[in-house]
User: Which sequence fits this backbone?
C-alpha cells in the first residue's frame, strides 16, 4: 500500500478546507487511508499529527495487524469493562455515541464523511442542533480523492483483473468440455465452480455476488440466482464476476455463446463490441463521463438497440466495486488521468434474453489503457 | 412467503403509531415486506390501500417478477426519459430526492425507517427543517417485527441451515481424505470448495463471506482471508459459514480438530459446548438476552476462559445474518417466542489460536428448538 502518499493527499485536502480534525466512518474510506477494512471509525488529528482507529474488541488484533500506517488502535465498547485489560493494550470504555460526541465537541470545525456515518449516531449526536453547524461533510472530498488512483492501486486492480480473467477462462474451458460430453449442468454448479476458481487464483474475496445467467435470465441486468436451473438448450451464458486483491476490486463480464442457436446472440455481441470501442476511443483526461456514455449509446442506436440499454455505461472501480466516477447520461463527472473505469454496454430484451460485455480501463492524459487481456467475444 | 400475514402485522403497527403513510428504504425491510431485494424504496399508503415500489430501470422486470404482494412497480430516474416507454409500464422521471420530497410533503405524518435512508437524501430532504418534524422513525418498529418470525420464515431458515450443514459435512469428509492422502491443501482451496458445495446444495447466495481459518488465524474472531496459506501442521480449522434460502440466512460455525495436536483444542471445545448448553437451557420466552449471554460467560469463567470471549454470545438471524435481538452483556432485549438466534461461544488466545462453535435456535414459550443437526464436536 502507498498509504503514506494517500495520507499526504488527504491531509492537503483537509488543509484546503481549513479542517484540523476529521472523523472517518466509511469502511472503504478507512481501508483506503489505513489498510484495515472492518467495523470501526478513524479519527485524524492534524494538530497532534495522530491517527486513532477505534474498533470493537473482536477486531482489535486484526486491525493492529492490517494497519499500513502509524496509528493507535483503541478497542471501544462498554463490553471491554468485563474483559481482561491484558488482552487489549488500549481501550475506551465509552460507547460510540459518547466517543463521537467527545470528538465533535472538542473542536470548532470537524470534517466527517457524513454519507457513511451510522444514521443512528447521526440522529442522536452529529445532527443535533449544537453540533451540526461545526461538522463539514467531506464525503465528496474522499470520493474525489479515491477516484484518481495511485500506481499501487492500479497494480492491485490489474492483478485482480488478470486473476479473475484466468478463473473465467478456466471455467469456460470446463464448461465447453462438460457440454461436449453432454453433462447436465446447473447454474448453481457453474456459479460454485467459478467462485472456487477465483479462490484458487489467490483472490481474497468476491467483489460482489457473481452473476451467472442463461436463457431468459440474461434479460435481467441483475438476474435472480436460480441454482437448480439447467443450462440445457440455452443459447448463451452471461458471467459477471470480480474478485479482490489487496483490498481492490475488479468487475469483468463476458457473454459466452454456446454451440447452438448462436445466430441470435452474435449480432448483439458485435454491436456491444462496437459500442465498447466507440466509448474507449473517446476516453482521455478532460472528457466528460456523459460524453463517453453517449458514444456507446449512439453506436447502439445505429444498430437499433438504444432502447434496450437501460443503465449507465460504467462506473469507477477500486476498493468498492462501484465508486466515483459515474458514466451515464446524467453524470456530471469529468474524467481525470488515473481514474479506473468499467465499460459495460449491454442490451436486454424484456422477457426474452440479453447480453453484456465489460472491461476495466485506466484513463490516461491522452487515451485509455485496458487492463483486460481476454477477448471480448467468445 | 407469508407476506400477506407480515403486511397485516406491519399495518397494525403503523396504525398504533397513528401513521397512514410510510416510506421504507432498507433493502432487507423491503424484502421482508414484498419479497423483492435490491435497490429502490417502498411507499405504503394505508388510506388508499396501495403499495408502490420505486426501483431503478435496470431492476424493473426483476422487481415485477419477485414481488409476493400486490404492489405497483415504478421505474424511477431521469434516465428513463431517454428510454422507450414500451419497456416500462410505469415510470417516474423525477430523481429520488424529488420523489421523496413529494411523498413527505403530501402528508402530515410519515413513517420511515430512517436508519436505512440514504444519508445524502436525508441531508438534503428528510432532515430539512420543514420536514423532519413530520417524519416518524419506524426503524425499531420494523426491527422488532422482523425479530419474531412467522412459521414460513422459520422454515426458510431451517432449510438454509440444513443445506449449509450438508455442504459443511461434505467439505469435512473431502478434507479428511485429502489430509489422509497427504495432499497440500490451501485455505483458498477449502474456501472455494465450501462455497461450491453450498451452491450445489441449492443455496441461492452467501449470507456472508465465509470464514476459513487455521493456525494462528483462528485467534482472530474475523480473520483475514489468506488464500495461499497451507493447512499443513494446523491443529484445527474454524469454518463459519451460511447460505440463504428464499432470502433467509443461516450462520453455522464448527471447529474441526485435525488428526494431530488435538490435545490443545479438545479441552477448549468441551468448554464451548458446556457454555452452549448452559445458554440453551436458559432460553425461553420472557428471559432477558443478557441473562442468556451471562450463562455461557459464567460457564467459560468456570473453565478459566472468560477473558478470552471478546464478543457477544449471539444475534438474531433472518433476512439479515445479523438482526435483532442482540445477545451480549450490554443487551436490553427480551426474548420472545418465535425469535431465531445464533449461539456462538468462542475463545481467542491472542497471537496463538482460538475456537468457536455456533448453532441456530428458535425461542419457544417454554424452551428452545435447535435447527442444527450436525454434532458440535468433530
Assistant:
Amino acid at each position: 500500500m502507498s498509504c503514506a502518499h494517500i495520507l499526504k493527499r488527504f491531509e492537503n485536502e483537509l488543509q484546503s478546507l481549513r479542517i484540523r480534525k476529521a472523523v472517518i466512518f466509511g469502511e472503504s474510506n478507512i481501508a483506503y487511508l489505513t489498510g484495515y477494512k472492518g467495523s470501526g471509525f478513524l479519527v485524524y488529528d492534524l494538530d497532534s499529527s495522530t491517527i486513532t482507529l477505534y474498533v470493537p474488541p473482536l477486531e482489535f488484533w486484526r486491525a493492529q495487524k492490517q494497519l499500513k500506517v502509524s496509528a493507535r488502535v483503541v478497542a471501544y465498547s462498554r463490553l471491554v469493562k468485563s474483559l481482561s485489560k491484558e488482552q487489549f493494550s488500549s481501550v475506551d470504555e465509552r460507547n460510540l455515541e459518547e466517543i463521537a460526541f467527545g470528538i465533535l465537541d472538542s473542536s470548532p470545525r470537524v470534517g466527517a464523511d457524513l454519507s457513511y456515518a451510522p444514521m443512528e449516531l447521526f440522529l442522536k449526536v452529529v445532527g443535533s442542533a449544537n453540533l451540526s453547524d461545526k461538522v463539514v461533510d467531506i464525503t465528496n472530498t474522499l470520493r474525489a480523492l479515491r477516484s484518481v488512483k495511485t500506481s499501487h492501486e492500479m497494480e492491485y486492480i490489474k492483478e485482480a483483473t488478470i486473476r479473475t480473467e484466468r478463473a473465467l477462462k478456466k471455467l469456460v474451458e470446463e464448461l465447453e468440455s462438460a457440454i461436449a460430453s453432454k453433462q447436465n449442468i446447473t447454474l448453481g454448479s457453474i456459479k460454485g465452480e467459478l467462485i472456487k476458481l477465483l479462490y484458487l487464483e489467490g483472490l481474497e474475496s468476491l467483489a460482489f455476488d457473481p452473476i451467472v445467467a442463461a436463457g431468459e435470465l440474461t434479460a435481467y441486468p441483475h438476474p435472480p440466482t436460480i441454482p437448480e436451473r439447467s443450462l440445457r438448450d440455452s443459447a448463451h451464458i452471461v458471467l459477471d464476476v470480480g474478485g479482490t486483491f489487496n483490498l481492490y476490486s475488479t468487475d469483468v463480464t463476458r457473454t459466452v455463446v454456446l454451440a447452438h442457436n448462436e445466430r441470435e446472440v452474435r449480432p448483439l455481441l458485435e454491436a456491444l463490441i462496437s459500442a465498447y470501442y466507440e466509448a474507449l476511443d473517446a476516453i482521455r483526461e478532460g472528457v466528460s463521463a456523459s460524453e463517453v456514455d453517449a458514444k456507446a449509446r449512439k453506436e447502439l442506436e445505429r444498430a437499433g438497440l438504444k432502447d434496450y440499454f437501460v443503465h449507465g455505461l460504467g462506473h469507477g472501480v477500486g476498493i468498492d466495486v462501484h465508486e466515483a466516477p459515474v458514466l451515464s447520461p446524467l453524470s456530471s463527472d469529468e474524467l481525470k488521468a488515473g481514474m479506473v473505469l468499467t465499460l459495460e454496454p449491454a442490451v436486454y430484451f424484456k422477457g426474452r434474453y440479453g447480453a453484456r460485455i465489460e472491461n476495466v480501463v485506466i484513463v490516461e492524459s491522452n487515451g485509455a489503457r485496458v487492463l483486460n487481456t481476454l477477448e471480448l467475444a467468445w
Notes: Residues 151-180 of chain B form the longest helix (30 residues). Chain B has eleven helices and 20 strands. Residues 3-147 of chain B form a domain with the Creatine Amidinohydrolase; Chain A, domain 1 fold (CATH 3.40.350.10).
